[in-house]
Write a sequence for this structure.
């Protein structure tokens, strides 16, 4: 009887070991497959983001109405993309910046910036006036915030709060309704997501105001256009 019990116990152990290895193999195989899909789709996703960014530039610098009128008249902005390096204490940070011009005159800027939200990375497109003094538009290019809460940062109504606010790096999130310039009303139940977006904007404005204002290549181009 003891021999039979040992045989049964040994069989159960062997079966459990086989099942454990099977689960491990399946998990590794699934992980490899998922990584392969992401690797294959990565360039496609990034290319789609670039195209969406270029499509959003007129709206973010001119506003919906003027951008729509220009499109209806077959007029378009000249969009000049560039990478701007910002030196930090221990590293260099790079921003994708799009200068928007019309008939030689600068109409504004669109800045791509991203950082940590509540659930995952948030990626933004920020519209700025030609002199970098005012926010002209905001678009959420990518986010994975909590459905029904944090993902409300994509709504037109919430994003509209930022339009015409000063681009001085001092935007502040409040919970009980914005009443002063520079205050942004938080999404109900999603203060962290709201603060993440606002912090990304403040950081981008602070990082880029001097490089874009003092960039000789940019300013030479502007002087030539006005000459």
């Amino acid at each position: 009887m003891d021999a039979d019990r040992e045989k049964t116990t040994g069989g159960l152990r062997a079966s459990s070991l086989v099942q454990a290895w099977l689960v491990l193999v399946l998990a590794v195989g699934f992980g490899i497959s998922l990584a392969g899909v992401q690797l294959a789709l990565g360039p496609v996703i990034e290319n789609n983001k670039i195209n969406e960014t270029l499509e959003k530039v007129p709206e973010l610098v001119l506003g919906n109405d003027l951008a729509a009128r220009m499109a209806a008249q077959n007029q378009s902005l000249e969009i000049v993309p560039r990478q701007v390096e910002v030196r930090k204490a221990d590293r260099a940070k790079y921003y994708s910046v799009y200068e928007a011009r019309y008939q030689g005159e600068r109409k504004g800027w669109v800045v791509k910036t991203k950082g940590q939200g509540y659930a995952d990375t948030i990626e933004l497109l920020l519209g700025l006036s030609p002199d970098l003094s005012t926010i002209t538009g905001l678009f959420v290019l990518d986010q994975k915030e909590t459905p029904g809460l944090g993902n409300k940062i994509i709504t037109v109504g919430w994003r509209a709060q930022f339009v015409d606010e000063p681009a001085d790096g001092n935007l502040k999130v409040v919970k009980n309704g914005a009443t002063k310039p520079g205050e942004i009303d938080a999404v109900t139940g999603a203060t962290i997501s709201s603060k993440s977006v606002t912090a990304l904007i403040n950081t981008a404005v602070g990082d880029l105001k001097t490089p874009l204002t003092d960039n000789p290549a940019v300013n030479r181009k502007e002087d030539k256009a006005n000459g």
About this structure: The first strand starts at residue 78 and ends at 87. Confidence is low (pLDDT under 50) at residues 219-227. The first helix runs from residue 2 to 62.
